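Our example pasted here:


***
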Amino acid sequence: MKYILVTGGVISGIGKGIIASSIGTILKSCGLRVTAIKIDPYINIDAGTFSPYEHGEVFVLNDGGEVDLDLGNYERFLDINLYKDNNITTGKIYQHVINKERHGDYLGKTVQVVPHITDAVQEWVMNQAKVPVDDDRKEPQICVIELGGTIGDIEGMPFVEAFRQFQFKAKRENFCNIHVSLVPQPNATGEQKTKPTQNSVRALRGLGLSPDLIVCRSAKPIEMAVKEKISMFCHVEPEQVIFIHDVSSTYRVPILLEEQGIIKYFKQRLNLPIDDQPSDLLMKWKKMADRYERLLKVCSIALVGKYTKLSDCYASVFKALEHSALAINHKLDLMYIDSTELERSTEAENSVKYHQAWHKLCKADGILVPGGFGIRGTEGKLQAISWARTKKKPFLGVCLGMQLAVVEFARNCLNWKDANSTEFDPDTKNPVVIDMPEHNPGDMGGTMRLGKRRTVFKTQNSILRKLYGDEMFVEERHRHRYEVNPELTHCFEEKGLKFVGHDTEGNRMEMIELENHPYFVGVQFHPEFSSRPMKPSPPYLGLLLAATGTLNAYLQRGCKLSPSDSYSDLSDDSSPEKEFPNSETS
């Protein structure tokens, strides 16, 4: 097993996750099996109880793990399926060690950070690195480990110490450290400054780790003189200094790394049995990045949510929309709309914000209402859903978005004016959305319906079924505490709101479709978590197709893209109408 540790300096949020994902993509393109581990030094057991403003979205894995959004980057870039133990937190490690102490494993010993915590980190990494993450179920050969936070953070010290020891246990030819640092360029001088990187590398060395590669992040391309200066003061060869500047899309990052000779370096440094040139997979990434930058046609989608001040809150939703837009040869124009600004109360307080929000919504080609929790902003979401339904605008509701679509239909089509979810009004006379029996309100962590579950189609006559390739069932990831009340579904179906998919027992409603509407769809699961750059999520692809007026043509062709929109230029298959979305990436 080869281990690549990615650390960060100067500031957090510098792009370590994208760098780690891109390195994994490059190595996978060389024919190696790659897995990934993310270490978060916070004491929380997992990311499930965070506000999205704390660390961005909560990403959900197949096994129900609620983890950091960087694991979403790993899955999308590497096309693998990770597990909850691929996300290590301080809370998990300490809980693991304390449980062993209570069990008597350390009987008679004083339990300390060194060696017990540091040993636990090393054992966890070595065990998890062996777990297969590809469909072929073979053991990985490379493990990319991202250490969250910034070198020098007090909470990250036990992990740094663990890897200081681990580099000797794994041996030099099996362990490599990549340090990602910031090269700022103050507007006052316009000069790119290397001192922050020098100080960061000095701090890393003082803790016992020496970087093998220094990846410098900057707003603009870095000059050669800066590279030579970092090489001299950070005690590495010039070819060990890699530059990654801000680019138009993250698809370009693996290409930039490969162009700077990273494959040749890894081959020598880790003694890898690979060729100097990458395989077709990386060439597909390059074509995809080129295609992304050449797009001329634009499709605008209004995302109506309550966490719109930070784009990371909806990272997977944005990526799923981007994947689908790229598949149909369109550039995505995603407009974030704070749902509270669509409400009448906002009009009374700030009419400018109210009219601006409605102007965005009205000009959008399609409307998306994503998942969420809490009553704030729900009336604005209901207004957006009502607009999409009555004006025949393509609409996709995900999780809470589907539940609110049911509430809106009950109020305005069934004339149940007080219809609501028991999440927002426990005493409503028409509880069209109810809490689930297994929901435990006394414990917030990990008590939802989580992970991959099967959804069975009830009917052949379903747009979603056709988009999914006319399968009898699909398996998607869930994260919810509430569900549509199954006792009331017949009332909706009589009026044209069809529940076209349910769970295997037939009790939980998973998909809705509205009759006589171009595309009014809701799903209880989160299909964005399974979207991949070359295999976009079918519900999101349907939204983009409907928003561009091409859904009917797509369905009539048997769910094949037209020659002008096809992915044939990214595939080994030269056919201009390669079947999609069930195509393989490589």
Summary: The chain has two domains: 2-192+204-233+246-290, 296-560. The first strand starts at residue 2 and ends at 8. Confidence is low (pLDDT under 50) at residues 566-586.
